[in-house]
Structure formats: structure tokens, C-alpha cells
Amino acid sequence: MTDENNNTYDVIVLGAGPVGENVADRTVAAGLSTVIVESELVGGECSYWACEPSKALLRPVLLYGEASRFPGVGAAVTGPIDTAAVLRHRDYMVSDWDDKGQVDWVASAGITLVRGHGRLAGPRRVTVATPEGGTVELTARHAVAVCTGTSASLPPLPGLDELRYWTSREATSAEQVPGRLVILGAGVVAVEMATAWQALGTRVTLVARGSGLLGRVESFASEMVADRLRSAGVDLRFESGIAAAERPDGPDGEVHVTLADGSLIVADELLFATGRSPRTEDIGLDTIGLKPGTWISTDDTFTATDVDGDWLYAVGDVNHRALLTHQGKYQARIVGGVIADRAAGIALDTETWGRSVGTADQLAVPQVVFTDPEVAAVGLGTEDAARAGRTVDVVDYEIGHVAGAIQHDPKYVGRARILIDPERRTIVGATFAGGGVAELLHSATIAITGEVTIDRLWHAVPSFPTISEIWLRLLETYRDQQAESAGSE
Fold it and tell me: What is the pLDDT of residues 335-356, one digit of tens each?
């Protein structure tokens, strides 16, 4: 049975994850009627299967590691981690996969929620297939924002359809700790899940096609993560890959993983952490001249560039600019303003760092990898600078030489690196690896975004004894490098 309902709003948002919620919140705040369409849980991937549950698994693991290594505390850490308690805490953090709280917030913000699978049906039109089997027809006066995010990419293995496997969703929501886990991948999901499950009692084998982990961060940081994983017992197999995988005894049996070199690994679970694909396969892109299943290209206002009329926006992961929740929410705040300004006939502020452009996507994208040690980076890395043909001065300092780091861990091992534009004397990139460095990242992000000069940074005094004193040591090192360079000329 089909019910036909015709509803017109100023703005239609496809996807009620953090990105879609932020777009809708901004447009409603601007006085635009807004409807948000969601086929799964309101709150999206981040809330239930990614950021929140993964960090709930990782935090006790990292805390246990720090405590067990600290003098006077390590002796008090007896016995293994209480995995049942960790999983209960994980369930609490995701509200037991119940989105009532998020639904209540949507209603309180004045946003209309329509549950079901939304598909574009031409310019400014969306058709929603509801869970009850009905159909809701929606029309937008001003804008449709696609905020459908991504899903896990899968390798082209034979028999994959019959193989029961994990993606990031199963890895963060598993109800039992597997005895043995094979992970295919070397990115953030792979290393974070290897860190978590190894510490929770799983024997982990990580298989990577390349020669190292975390290919987009500075090599010193990825090598530190690899060393710690090895010392924790993770079996790292580099320059390899999976040729075949099967469960010969059925979906509940062991998984037999054949590597590219012909070797066999027998495990209980197999996690594919091999990247992300846009969730655009079945959202009606063909009805507006776009190819289904592809990333949606945008300009810096996040307006779709291949669709006429400035009515379609692609926000968050789906535009492939920066696949991070916080960056998607940043884009959403901009898009909310862009839609509101266009609806009101106000000219957009598209100057660099203007309110209508996502400049940070190119210059200052921060990311933390919650491994042991943590890795935090923003802006350019040395390889990024080389590819872009940019001349930068590289400044390194061992974080363990800072008094605050020794207070954190007497055997602290970590490194900081900043990249400096020698002409403008501003920081264009920063990477930190070590315990507790995630909290250093926002200061680096502000320095890059604010284009704070090195001369001005000398007057930003770090408190003692904290790890943030690393900023002073980096500046001193740069001063000494410049003096040495001048003396050798």
C-alpha cells in the first residue's frame, strides 16, 4: 500500500548524521523550514559505529597501558582489562543503539524528521520510501543537501558475498572478544582496531599492502605506532595482501585467510579496513545527471559543481574533501549560512577565510589517531609539501625532553614536527606523536589557521610543567637552526 503525501520545505537534508544535523540546525536557525531524511539511526555512523564506540573501546586500553607503565601505579594494576565492563561502557556511549535522544533533539530544534530511504527525483525533489511501505514526496524551495556519508569499501575477493566478515561497523559493535582477528588495511580504522582488540585479549594479525602504517602521516609517527603494536603482540605483515578468504565450516566457523604469498592464517574474524566509498549508489543521482555511486564534486561553498542552479549541496564525507566528522560539521555550518544567504538574496562572503568558504579543508585539517602512542596532525606533512613543490623548514624535537612529558611518563617516547614557510614565517603543518598529544592539536590548528608568525608565537608562553612546552622547544630549535645556517654561509 502506498500513501502519497506532498510536502514543501525550504530545505531538504538527506542524512541525519552529525553533518546533516548541523546543516539542518543552521538553516532552521536562519528561519528556513527544514526536513531531514534518515533511513537508519538518527545520529549516523559517527554516533553508533565509528567515532563514539571506537573511542569507548580505545580509552580504557590507552589508560590501562599508561597506568601499567607508570612508577608507583604499575604495581597496583593487577590482572587483565575487564572486557565485559569495557563493552558495557561502549554500549552506554552509543545509547545501546537507540536514537531516541537524537530524535528528541531534532524535534526540539524545530527540524522535521522523515524516516525512510530518500532518493532525488529531479531538481529540488526527493521521494522517501518509508519503513511502513509508504511514499513521501518532498519538494525544496531553496536547497537539497546530500549528507549521506560513506560506507566501507571491500576488496574484490572471490566468494565475498558468501563470506561473513567484519567492516568498521562490526569491529566497533561486536558483542564478544574474538580469539583471533585478521585485519586487512593500514589506515586509521585498521590501527585503532588493532590497538583496541589486541589489548582486550584478541590475537591480531594486520595485513598491509604497503611497507608501513598510516600512509598519510609523517613516517616517524607511523613507525612509532608500528613499534608499539609489535611490542603489544600484533603480527604485522607488510607488503602483502589477501588472495582469498573462506569459512569452510560455514558462517560460524573459522575463517581461512590466504595471503598473496600463499601463506595461510586461520582466525575467528576478518576485518576489512580498506577505505570508504560514498553512499550515493541509490539516492537518485541519475535523475539530476550525475553518476550513481560516485563522490559529488563541489566548489568551496560545497555547492555541487556539476548541477545547474545552485540548489544541490554535498556536505561531509560524500564530497571526498576531508573524511572526518569534525570537518564535515565545519562544512555543514558553512553550508547552513550559504543556503540562508542565498535564500535571502545576500551576496556570499567568498574571500579566503570568509564565512561562505571551506578554506580549512585545504589548509588546516586536524586529525587524531587514537593509538598507543597517539598521533595528531594538522596541515601539511613533509611529503605533502614536496608534492606541492613548497619549500618548508622542518623542525623536530623529542617530546620526551620536555618536563611536562616526563611528568606524564618518566620513559616518555614521542616526537613533534612543525613545518615553517620560511618567507612568511608561519607554520603550515604540525605532527605530534606520543602520549597525550591529542590536546596539543588545537593550538597547532589555531596557529596555522590564524597564520600566526613565528615572531608572535615567541610571546605565547606555555605553562610549566605541561607537554605544551614543546612549542617553546620547537621555536628554540628553529632559532638555533637558522643561526647555524647563517653561520655556515
Answer: 999 999 999 999 999 998 999 9
> What pTM, to 2 d.p., does this model score?
0.95
Is 389 annotated to bind a ligand? Reply is no
Which residues are within 8 A (CB) of 449 and not within 5 positions of it... i.e. 6 or more apart?
A: 353, 360, 363, 364
User: For residue 471, is pLDDT > 80?
Assistant: yes
- 188 annotated as a binding-site residue: yes
Q: Any binding-site annotation on 275?
A: yes
Domain 160-274 in this protein, CATH class: alpha beta
Where does 71-152 show beta strands of DSSP type E? 112-115, 117-120, 125-129, 135-146, 150-152
One-letter amino acid for residue 209 of the chain: R
The answer to whether the annotation marks 104 as part of a ligand binding site is no
Q: Are the beta carbons of 296 and 290 closer than 8 angstroms?
A: yes
Domain ranges for the chain, please list them: 4-48+94-151+277-360, 160-274, 373-482
| 189 annotated to bind ligand | yes
Q: Is 136 annotated as a binding residue?
A: no
Is residue 484 very low, low, confident or very high in pLDDT (cuts 50, 70, 90)? confident
Residue 13: the pLDDT is 98
What single-letter amino acid sits at 237? Answer: R
Q: Report pLDDT for 486.
A: 82
Residue 32 has pLDDT above 70, yes or no: yes
* Whole-angstrom distance, CA of residue 251 vs CA of residue 158: 16
> Has 55 been labeled as part of a binding site?
yes
> Is 317 assigned to a binding site?
yes
Q: Is 67 annotated as a binding residue?
A: no
CATH architecture of 373-482: 2-Layer Sandwich (3.30)
Q: For residue 13, say whether it is annotated as part of any ligand binding site.
A: no
Instruction: Give CATH superfamily name and number for 4-48+94-151+277-360.
Output: FAD/NAD(P)-binding domain (3.50.50.60)
pLDDT of residue 293: 97
